[in-house]
Amino acid sequence: MARGARGGRAAGPRPRVQVAALVVAGVFLLIGVLGFIPGITTDYGELRFGGHHSDAHLLGLFQVSILHNAVHLFFGLAGLVLARSIAGARVFLAGGGAIYLALWLYGLAIEAINPDAGANILPLNDADNWLHLALGFGMLALGLLLSNQAGTGGRLDGPAEGR
Q1: Are 97 and 136 in contact, with CB atoms under 8 Å apart?
Q2: Mean pLDDT of 10-23
Q3: Nearest to 27 by CA among 92, 95, 123, 88
Q4: Taking the complete model, does pTM exceed 0.90, yes or no?
Q5: pLDDT value for 52
């Protein structure tokens, strides 16, 4: 079987779980960058480091802050690094999906208690909450469903397999 240019894994198409992880990571990087562009982010002059006082909105809908954009950039970079292996791609997608579901619950709790409280550090609004729910389920599904046969011989014994 032919090897890649570095002599690593066999040459050929990447497993779907790795491609999905790369695409999701790229979207996170794009969103993180777009959050810093005036015009795409409305009320850009109101962008704050963190907290509910940041009144900037990505695409006029999603409340963002410098910290929120930085989290997207970090998540995208982590995804690019983890997508280099099948196991890493699984961890990024499934683990990231779980993180985003937890973030959705956090956003719901903030909304229920007091959206103007100091605990709303990212900041989050209703649009963010719905997006986090969709991201959580979407990433979790990609991480679990696309990796079933990739590099494991059909068994999902552990996340370290497939390296």
Answers
A1: yes
A2: 88
A3: 92
A4: no
A5: 76
Beta bridge partners of 56: 64
Give the per-residue SS3 of the chain: CCECCCCCCECCCCCHHHHHHHHHHHHHHHHHHHCCCECCEECHHHCCCCCCCCCEEECCCEEECHHHHHHHHHHHHHHHHHCCCHHHHHHHHHHHHHHHHHHHHHHHHHHHHCCCCCCCCCCCCHHHHHHHHHHHHHHHHHHHHCCCCCCCCCCCCCCCCCC
Which pair of tokens denotes residue 93?
């997608």
Token pair, residue 75, equals 């998540």
Tokens at 125, concatenated:
């609004």
pLDDT, position 1: 44
CA–centroid distance for 66 within its chain: 16
User: Could you tell me which of 104, 112, 125 has the C-alpha nearest to residue 56?
Assistant: 125
Distance of alpha carbon 88 from its chain centroid, rounded? 14
Distances, alpha carbon 146 to alpha carbons 22, 32, 33, 123, in Å = 13, 26, 28, 32
Could you read off the pLDDT of 110-151 as tens digits, one per residue? Answer: 888 876 666 677 778 889 999 999 999 999 999 999 866 655
